[in-house]
Specification:
By secondary structure, the protein is an alpha+beta fold. 56% of the residues lie in helices and 11% in strands. Helix 1 packs antiparallel against helix 3, helix 3 (38-51) packs across helix 4 and helix 4 (62-88) crosses helix 7.
Length: 311
Amino acid sequence: MKKILVMVLALWLCTPLASWAAQLNKVAAVVNGQVITMFDLQKMALPEMARAGIRPDNKATSKQQDAIFRSVLDMMIMDILIAQEAKRLKVSVSPAEIDNELSMMMKAGNLTKQQFEAQLKQQKLSLAELRANIERNLLRQKIMGMEVARKVVVTASEIEEYYNTHRESMIDRRGLHMGLLVYRPNVNAKALAAQIRSGKLSFAEATAKYSIAPNKDKGGDMGPVEWDRLNPEWSERLNTMKPGDVTEIFEIQGRKAQVHLFRPGGGENRLLTLEEATPVIDGILRQPKARERFEDYTGQLRKKAVIDIRL
């Protein structure tokens, strides 16, 4: 991907100077008076273009390029609206909160500060840019907590009904670990996933041979799952898995990946009582409701905003 990223950037840089300058200075959108330039948009879209293997000089992919630009622009508009709403509500993210997120990222990857910074350099991402990304994500989480999560209600009858229907999957999850397999580029992830599913290849074997994730020699073991710290995407995925389950292929940072949920050393699984399972079920039922509420909330932000898209 690094080579593709450099190639895409080089092709943009090779554009004739006058055309390039005009393109950079062009306004892509104005959101409540805040300008998004084409330079900003192209910079944000660059990783997506590289992941898709799209060259900007290839007219045959112009529709795909346009779709990527519009998708990235939509995300940038929403980031601005969230930031403006956070300012109105006097919500902010402290440097210490960002430092804490960085520390957790280094811990998850088992990386020293020097190794982490070297990895960022390889990805053509500065520490300042990463901190800005983290700040945007934390702001979004805080606004969601204030304006979305607290307004989502899960009733006791909904929880009981779910428990009775899914009783066999209500397993004591303490001590469960997550194994992460992030496939190397240019391997047939679909075929390997089929082998894992059929039992011809174990998850640990696949991880040792084909993964670029940390601890690949230990089955990709990321350690005990911190259930109360999972973001919604991971929570929704892991909370519905049983020990021994392996997910279908999904994407993480543009790479194909799979997750294995397991209990080191094996051992019997204990089923939870309704009372014990209530917090787990509450989280499972809350996610889709929160998504719906978030879509409503962001839709209202858009309706109230003055957005001028000039693509």
